[in-house]
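User: Please predict the structure of the protein below. I'd like the answer in structure-token form so I can feed it into my own downstream comparison script.

Assistant: Understood. Taking the following sequence of 305 residues as input:
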Amino acid sequence: MHLSGLDLNLVLSLRALLEERNVTRAGQRIGLSQPAMSAALARLRRHFDDELLSRVGGQYELTALGRALLDRTATACDLLERVFSSRAEFVPGSEEHEFTLLASDYAIAVFGAELARTVHAEAPGVRLRFQRTPADATEETATALSAVDGLLMPHGIISGFPAVDLFTDRWAFLVADSNDEVGDRLTMADLARLPWVIYQRTYDAPAARQLSMLGIDPHAEVSVDSFQVLPFLVAGTHRIALVQRSLADLLSGVAAVRVMDPPYEAVPLQEAMWWHPVHTHDAAHIWLRETAARVGAGLGHPGDE
């Protein structure tokens, strides 16, 4: 099937029909009359050779193909919107624009805050929207990237998409001030013996793989999807947690914990901004990437003393 043989307006009709599951409401949503939307549904049914919407009792339900097309159609519409909103020029000082970035709370605290300050100073009409990285972003990366301007994530987790390096960070351990089972230095025996608080997503996968290669299988007593709460779940306990050194330094003093070096040569973390190839030649996105790289370079190597 070639795009030249398709009426791309049907993509909008398809999305509205699948999401609304009602011909009248779908037409109202995209500005078509009920007869026009019914005609569009008939064309879509012929194209896919499937009912897409089947009447069950007094309402419509999606067929199996309709359910499969639901997310794909939303992704296609997002991509089309971004293609046709691309700019040949971008003048940051006079533009009104919004960028959406997926990021962990670590990336927002360590990098996003400085990026926001720089953007405000250089492009006051530009807005940044940070959203939590969805749990399936590593499996459905293309889908996740299609609806946003970028994903802040270290190397070693996803691949196959363009990226710009931002900054390098180190790993450290958090240990409660009251934990008298740990001396002035952590040992490999401590890592194997003590209970852990772990970040439950794959963001620290390279670090976790290294621990596995060293024969350490952390006993996870608590798991959480926020890096910034790790100190509070370590304080007053015998638990330990692996955390980025820059975030540990940023949170210094918020909880009664010690920041300790790993008892092994930990693989550093290289943070990057990943994007969908559809953005590569867009002037606004080029400015965002260049600004992000400049801000990241200005951070140097967070966590270094």
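That's the full token string. The first strand starts at residue 53 and ends at 56.
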